[in-house]
Design a protein that fits this description.
The chain is mainly beta. Helix content is about 5%, strand content about 40%. The protein contains two helices and 19 strands. A hairpin with a 2-residue loop joins strand 8 and strand 9.
Length: about 240
């Protein structure tokens, strides 16, 4: 994509049929981390009342933040941010009873969360919602357990997952499996437009490697929380 906006073009009649069945459009963001506790959280949701033939998606993580939460990670439950702080890639976020303090000393391309708190918490990355109709505070989109004195290193990527589903999930909820037809997109390589036909599914140019169809009932964690591989302990 040369710009910052991805356009979903719905085939003729698809918007009306999606509305009639009660479909909603969900968005997720991908990260890389060697911490195995990480899970994806719902990053965006577009209700059926907002479906039109052309839907705009902003995949770039504006208002990039680190958050902490006292909630536990659990399937079908939300992780609510107790505190958030804007941060840039390459910075370290020091977490204590006083909140979150961004500092230098991180690793390029990653965000490091270092716990100086007195209890275990959940931490992760948050960003503005992808769908303009969801404009508002930064939304937690990944969650990791962080113990006292430990650190979690997270590398955001340019990939997102879009999903049609009739179930209603709130933002920042851990959805374990895909609930409908989905597509995984590498937005740094993708075209500016992708199609969806309710009778056919997601559509993109033949042979394009920047998109992958994801069927219902697919585990989302392996797609959205990637392992950096051996000999790369810092998360990217």
């Amino acid at each position: 994509m040369t710009g910052e906006t991805l356009t979903i073009k719905l085939a003729d009649g698809s918007a009306a049929r999606l509305k009639a069945s009660g479909f909603q459009l969900y968005g997720f963001r991908q990260v890389i981390s060697s911490n195995k506790s990480g899970v994806p959280l719902v990053a965006s949701r577009l209700g059926d009342a907002q479906f039109v033939d052309t839907i705009s998606v902003d995949p770039s993580p504006h208002h990039f933040s680190v958050y902490i939460s006292l909630d536990r990670i659990a399937v079908d439950h939300a992780v609510v941010a107790g505190d958030q702080a804007a941060i840039r890639e390459g910075e370290l976020a020091e977490v204590s009873t006083n909140g979150i303090e961004p500092r230098s000393g991180g690793t390029a391309g990653t965000v490091t969360v270092l716990s100086m708190a007195e209890r275990a918490m959940v931490c992760g990355l948050s960003a503005a919602a992808m769908f303009p109709a969801n404009d508002g505070p930064a939304v937690p989109y990944s969650g990791f357990d962080i113990e006292v004195g430990a650190q979690v290193v997270i590398a955001p990527t340019a990939s997102i997952l879009l999903m049609w589903a009739t179930s209603t999930y709130d933002l920042s909820v851990f959805m374990a499996k895909s609930l409908g037809r989905s597509v995984l997109l590498a937005t740094d390589l993708a075209d500016a437009t992708i199609g969806f036909d309710i009778d056919v599914g997601w559509q993109w140019p033949p042979g394009a490697l920047w998109a992958k169809a994801i069927p219902p009932n697919t585990e989302l964690k392996p797609l959205l929380v990637l392992d950096p591989g051996h000999n790369r302990p810092l998360g990217y």
